[in-house]
Amino acid sequence: ITFSTETLNNHSLAITGKVTDSSENGVAGVQVLIFDETRQETAAVVYTDAEGNWSSNTGMTGRDYSITFYHSCYSFTPQNIRIEDFTETAVCETVTATPLFEAGEESVPENFTYCVLNGRYASITGYTGTETQIIIPETVDGYVVQKIEAEAFKGNTAVTHILLPDSVTTI
Question: pTM (2 decimals)?
Answer without folding.
Answer: 0.63
